[in-house]
Amino acid sequence: MTQIDWDNLGFSYIKTPFRYISHWKNGSWDEGRLTEDNQLHISEGSPALHYGQQCFEGLKAYRCKDGSINLFRVQENAKRMNRSASRLMMANVPEEKFVDAVKQVVTANKDYVPPYGSGGTLYLRPLLIGVGDSIGVQPADEYIFTVFCMPVGAYFKGGLKPTNFIISDYDRAAPQGTGAVKVGGNYAASILPGEDAKARSFSDCIYLDPATHTKIEEVGSANFFGITYDDEFITPISPSILPSITKYSLLYLAENRLGLKAIEGDVYLSELDRYKEAGACGTAAVISPIGGIQYGDTFHVFHSETEVGPITKKLYDELTGIQFGDVAAPEGWIMKAVQ
Ligand SMILES: *Cc1c(COP(=O)(O)O)cnc(C)c1O
């Protein structure tokens, strides 16, 4: 096995030994299998290449104190991938097949799940693409479902640190477009605004609602949440936001474990003064505290530009405690990939 420096992992591609692959043709999936081949061999006519007929998921496997490996709400990823697939008229992947593929990949690569306490996790990337000899704008005749994985480091080394964001003039998705599904096209559209923000020393950009440009929608490729001075946990509601599993988990934990009032509602840019804390959330970002937001000539600071707020910290500890098996999980949230 290649030697991995567990303490210095980032978020980059590492070739692990095994990935899962299954092919759909003539109306059904084949059995699917693990392979050591990390190259896909597909037709140059594949609709995934030309018209973006593809969708993906992202989830993590967590090493627990006792050495076992947890998956967090994996069924939700399976369901969401099928919502994405249906929106793009792609073959669905049965939920059991999705979960089984993820478990097989984690088990086969279990030596690559970072040790408990390192903050690292095994990131899993399920991918569904339309392939086959084609060229017209229509659904593919064939599909490939693959799941690969790589160890990734803690998002914040040395503790949660707020970072700053800037409101983008661009839209990530259209009001009735594909913003609510996890498809590559949304990401292609977000690369330029994201790089613009980084070139100006911000962590990423924040997208406003595409219809009126008055409400916060997404933070780069993560969801937004704010905590008001009235102790409400609020996340934006909109048909063009990607329904983050982390976000729905935080809504539950805020209400049931922290005693906050949890609401999906509008977060107006003109009302940022209502919020004492804010953050971005998602599988990769976990919870990333937002220090300040730049819009036009204004820079709005929440709790602090340098210190994480107390409620954001509590939510982070509760969520990651559940994921790593140190805090009791709500019913059905944890599945063991490896006992
Ligand atoms: C995947 C994703 C998220 C986060 O979703 P999780 O289920 O929490 O990982 C948020 N926004 C966008 C645009 C995404 O693609």
Features:
6 helices; 2 domains; D-amino Acid Aminotransferase, Chain A, domain 2; D-amino Acid Aminotransferase, Chain A, domain 1; alpha+beta; 339 residues; binds pyridoxal-5'-phosphate; six-stranded mixed beta barrel
Q: Can you describe this structure?
A:
- The strands form two sheets. Strands 1, 2, 3, 4, 5, 6, 7, 8 and 18 form a nine-stranded antiparallel β-sheet that branches. Strands 9-10-11-12-15-16 form a six-stranded mixed barrel.
- The chain has six helices and 18 strands.
- The two termini are 22 Å apart.
- It has helices spanning 47-51, 74-87, 95-108, 184-199, 245-256, 310-323, and strands at 19-25, 28-29, 33-35, 54-56, 59-63, 69-72, 121-131, 142-152, 163-167, 204-208, 216-219, 222-228, 232-236, 261-265, 275-282, 286-295, 298-301, 334-338.
- The longest helix has 16 residues, at 184-199.
- The chain is globular.
- The structure holds pyridoxal-5'-phosphate (PLP).
- Pyridoxal-5'-phosphate binds at residues 58, 182, 218, 221-223, 242, 244-247, 282-283.
- The site of pyridoxal-5'-phosphate has 13 residues, from strand 12 and helix 5.
- Its cofactor is pyridoxal 5'-phosphate.
- It catalyses: L-leucine + 2-oxoglutarate = 4-methyl-2-oxopentanoate + L-glutamate; L-valine + 2-oxoglutarate = 3-methyl-2-oxobutanoate + L-glutamate; L-isoleucine + 2-oxoglutarate = (S)-3-methyl-2-oxopentanoate + L-glutamate.
- Its EC number is 2.6.1.42.
- The modification N6-(pyridoxal phosphate)lysine is found at residue 182.
